[in-house]
């Protein structure tokens, strides 16, 4: 399969390698050093790096500017874009801005509700939803046109991704919803953090049976737990998260100072198990503010060194 | 109907503090049904104002009236004799009624005594729930009769988002996920296949985004 964009991530996947992506959250200020440093920690172990877009609705240095910093440092960014904060004019404009710096990957999301963040009293926009943003990028890239119909001079050339949460409710629409995103034109999926591996495998199996995995690459999302407290928090407080009791019990069963190590070990075991599952096209490792652990997980999971691309 | 919520009394006291002839004006329609702005509430607010002025040792006159509809010029104009002796009106109709009063009585300040909230219905006595944001191009046929514009916190037209948990919205365990409701209803109608139809990018020009809307029914306009 030939690539349609210059994206390294796309090339990696199309060459049949299991891809590895990770993500960095931008700082709450204008000093870009922090994000560049985080990216340097992981750059040899991943193919591309997501930059979150005001995650959990907390105002931060913008994803686009952060992506530009990475791009200028020679790394491959994935621009995350949520539909919460911008209307279709702003989103198309930012897509062009990213394209002007040859940013070749985008992840289309609706974003967390603003009530979770530092501007709970703010408006949200949601002019488009995540599926419609996927359609928008595909339209701009493939038709070379704006939503309004006018031609784009030098259209964006972006590999188009989205998130999927196999654990949100209702479970029966989880596969149809993936089918819907595929119909909208998504090309790769990064999943929500997987702690319930059985349920993820069931979801992926159903997606495979529907022939969806021939049309979209699914990267399994993994997050190393730092402590039993974090496991409990994610289980009870983070919407749409499925952390089974045995996961909480396992990390809670080791002494506090050993819990981070246990969390990393569990993450590595998850990579090792999911690597063998047909249809897992790669991994998306979200080591929330714990980027230095990503190399260990990638190596422990047998995903290192990263295969060369010619 | 339009659902409103009474403003805190302190706020209303502050709004009228420079006036001595105050008319509390209610409305017999939506705000009566949602129990914030009908004759009964006019009486309660007027008494509260009288008591407030009495406590302040201030002599003030507080009048009461309830219009059939404050969102209808005919009734607003018809209240002229009642309204004009006063030097401020506290309207406890919705924001529409309050504005109609203000438009008609150019020389008299008209202030709102309620916060107008949403278009909704009564689930039970004392409990009202939002159902519509008047987007101007109704999607209910595609969404099994449940409105994602007004009932989904992110207004996603192809939901649910990843935050839906046990039938509830990510913003609160007390809020139903609109998309869970849509899926449940599609299922009970035997229409789950429809779920996979992508809802296209919406034309919001018929919504608030298109600017203030006016509707003219030609055959009725004289
Ligand atoms: S789709 Fe629009 S018109 Fe229909 S109920 Fe929802 S907000 Fe109201
Ligand atoms: S959880 Fe449901 S109602 Fe809440 S924002 Fe997501 S789709 Fe909308």
Automatic annotation (TrEMBL), chain A:
Its cofactor is FAD. Keywords: FAD, Flavoprotein, Oxidoreductase. The keyword Ligase does not apply. It catalyses: (6S)-5-methyl-5,6,7,8-tetrahydrofolate + NAD(+) = (6R)-5,10-methylene-5,6,7,8-tetrahydrofolate + NADH + H(+). It comes from the Bacteria. It holds the Pfam family MTHFR. GO terms for cellular component: cytosol. One of its GO terms (molecular function) is FAD binding. GO terms for biological process: methionine biosynthetic process; tetrahydrofolate interconversion. Pathway: One-carbon metabolism; tetrahydrofolate interconversion; Amino-acid biosynthesis; L-methionine biosynthesis via de novo pathway. CDD domains: MTHFR. The keyword Cell inner membrane does not apply. PANTHER family: METHYLENETETRAHYDROFOLATE REDUCTASE (PTHR45754), METHYLENETETRAHYDROFOLATE REDUCTASE (NADPH) (PTHR45754:SF3). Belongs to the methylenetetrahydrofolate reductase family. This is Methylenetetrahydrofolate reductase. It comes from Desulfoferula mesophila. The lineage of its organism: Bacteria, Pseudomonadati, Thermodesulfobacteriota, Desulfarculia, Desulfarculales.
TrEMBL record, chain B:
One of its GO terms (molecular function) is zinc ion binding. It comes from the Bacteria. Residues 112-205 form the Methylene-tetrahydrofolate reductase C-terminal-like domain. InterPro entries: DUF5981 (IPR022026). Keywords: Metal-binding, Zinc, Zinc-finger. This is Zinc-finger protein. Coiled coil: none annotated.
